[in-house]
Amino acid sequence: MNKRTSWADLAANSAAENTYAGSSVNNGILGTTSGGASRTNTYVPPHLRNRPASSDPPAPAYSGPASSNDRSAYGGARWGGARNDSRSGYGGSGGGGGRTGGWGGGRGGGWDRGREQEVNPFGDDDNTEQAFSEQANSGINFDAYEDIPVETSGDNIPPPVNIFAEIDLGEALNLNIHRCKYVKPTPVQRHAIPISLAGRDLMACAQTGSGKTAAFCFPIINGIMEMQAQGVQRPSRGARTVYPLALILSPTRELSMQIHEEAKKFSYQTGVKVVVAYGGAPINQQLRELERGVDILVATPGRLVDLLERARVSLQMVKYLALDEADRMLDMGFEPQIRKIVEQMDMPLPGFRQTMLFSATFPKEIQRLASDFLYNYIFLAVGRVGSSTDLIVQRVEFVYDSDKRSHLMDLLHAQRANGVHGKQALTLVFVETKKGADSLEHWLCVNGFPATSIHGDRSQQEREQALRSFKSGNTPILVATDVAARGLDIPHVAHVVNFDLPNDIDDYVHRIGRTGRAGKTGLATAFFNESNVSLARALADLMQESNQEVPAWLSRYAARSSYGGGRNRRPGGNRFGGRDFRRDSSYTRGGMDYYGGNSTSGYGASGGYGGGYGPGVTSAWD
DNA sequence: AAAAAAC
C-alpha cells in the first residue's frame, strides 16, 4: 500500500471518528473552553476541521527566535521576548535581544559532515516498506483507543488533529512516520502534537504504551528542522562545549536509551542529530558523540549534571525541554537534581523555552512542583484511569511471603503449558528489593526456569544484557525492581507478576503498563498479603474502575483500611487519567482564570468521594 | 523502607 492510498483511507476513517473527537473534547462534561472559535456546535465538514479560526495563512514556517513561532491562532507568547507576562525576572534574558548574538546565518555545527555516515535506524536501506513489520510499532490496535475520554484545560487550546497528514511536520519526518508504520496518531498524539506545534507548554497525562515518545519527539524534531532552515547558529566560545537545542530527561538509563533509539528513527535524514548520555557507561564515548554535534540530547539527570559541571554541555540554547515520566522526575529523590538542571544552570527561563511534561500518572503535589517549570501551560489527560487497564486483566491473589515462590512456579508452569509459538511467553516479575531480585532469579534458574534480572546494583552491561536477553525470548522471565517499572517498551510481555506489590498505586499502574502495550491485551497478577494493606483500597478502587473482578477479601481489606495520610487514594467517578490541579478549589492562582470560568458535571471541587477524604489529598487521580 | 540517578 502506498502512502497516498493509506492516507486517503485514513482521511475517510477519521471523518467517522470525528464524532468521537467532537464529543469527548468539546462536550460540556469537561467544562473547559477547548478549541477556540472553531469548536462550535455548527457542522464543519471534515476537510475544514481543526483549522485556525481566522483566515491566517496555515502553519507559517519557523521565522526565527525573535519572532512569533505560532503555528495557528493558538500560540501563546513565545520565545524571544514576545511574552507580555508581568512576572519578574524576565527582563532581557534568554533571547529577548532577538536576532543578536548567536543567531546569525550558517548551519549548525558539525553535523553536515557526519550526516553522510548516518546509520539507517530502520535497518533496511532499500526496502522501507518491510522495515518494522515485525516490530511492536506495527499493528497497533487502534480500535482499543477509540472512545477514550480526553480532558484539556488551559488557555486557548489548539484543537486535535485526526491524521498525521493534517499537520505539516515536513516531508522527511512524514517519511519516517511512514517507515515506522504509524498510520494514525494515537489519542495523546492527536492532542499533544498540535499543542506543541503551537508553541505551548504542556503537562500531559496519558496511558502507558500510548505513544507519548512520538508525541513530544515529532514537534521537537519539526521545530529544530525549522530552526536549522533559518540558520540557527550556536555560540563558538568554549571550543569543547556543545549546545543542544532540545533536552529530553528520563529517570532510568534504559529508558533514555529507548527514547534515543526512537528519536533516531524519527529524525533519520532530517539533519537533526540525537545523542544520548547516561551513567554506568564510559563517558568518553558519549563525549565523542557530543563533539560530533548534537541537536537533541537525551539524558539521565546524574550524567547530565556531570557534563554540565565539566562545561561540556551548555543548556543556553535549549528551546525544547521534555521530561518523560515527569512525576517520577520530580519526586523526592530526583527533584533537587532536576531543579539544578532546569533552574540553576544556563537553561532559558519558562516562556523562553518550550516545556513538555509527560507521564501516565501525575499526583497533584507533583503538578504543583512542575508548574514552576511551565509557562501558561495546557493540561491534557487522555484515557481512563489505570491506563490501558481495559486491555489488561488484573488478578490479585492472597499469597503469604513464604508461599510466593511456589505460587510463582505454579503460574509459570501453567504459562509454559499455554506456550505460544513454541516459546514461553515473556513474564516480567517485579520485586521490592535488589537482593530479592538476585535471590529470586537464582532460585528460578536453579528450578529450571530461564530467568535473568535487572536492578540498580547490576553493572550497566549486565542490565542491558538482561533486557536484550529478555526481549529476544532467550530468558523469557525477567525479575526486576522498579528500575523497569516505567516507560520501557518491551513487546510481547504477556504477563506482569507483582511478586511484591509496591506501596504506591501509581507505581502499580506503571508496572502493569509493561503489558497490554500498543493496544494489545495482557495479564497482571499481584501477590497480596498483610504487608500490603495500605494499598488495598487504592488497588480495589483501581480494579473496580477498570472493570476487573475485585475479590471479596480484598474489598474487606479495603473497607477496613483508612486513608489517613498515605497517597494511595484515588476515588472513582473520574474517567480520566488525571486532573489539572489548577482546577482544585483549594488552588487559587491570583486572579488568573485559566478555565473560562465554567467547571461542570462531576468535576466540581466536591467530587464523588469528596466527603470521604481528609486533608492532604494528593493524587492526580482525584 | 526501597529504588533510581555520576565519578
From TrEMBL:
Residues 18-43 have a biased composition (Polar residues). Residues 407-558 form the Helicase C-terminal domain. It comes from Erythroxylum novogranatense. Keywords: ATP-binding, Helicase, Hydrolase, Nucleotide-binding, RNA-binding. It comes from the Eukaryota. It is an enzyme of class 3 (hydrolase). GO terms for molecular function: ATP binding; hydrolase activity; RNA binding; RNA helicase activity. Residues 18-130, 561-584 are annotated as: Disordered. Residues 89-109 have a biased composition (Gly residues). InterPro entries: DEAD/DEAH_box_helicase_dom (IPR011545), Ded1/Dbp1_DEADc (IPR044763), Helicase_ATP-bd (IPR014001), Helicase_C-like (IPR001650), P-loop_NTPase (IPR027417), RNA_helicase_DEAD_Q_motif (IPR014014). Signal peptide: none annotated. This is RNA helicase. Belongs to the DEAD box helicase family. DDX3/DED1 subfamily. Its EC number is 3.6.4.13. It catalyses: ATP + H2O = ADP + phosphate + H(+). Gene3D superfamilies: P-loop containing nucleotide triphosphate hydrolases. Residues 162-190 form the DEAD-box RNA helicase Q domain.
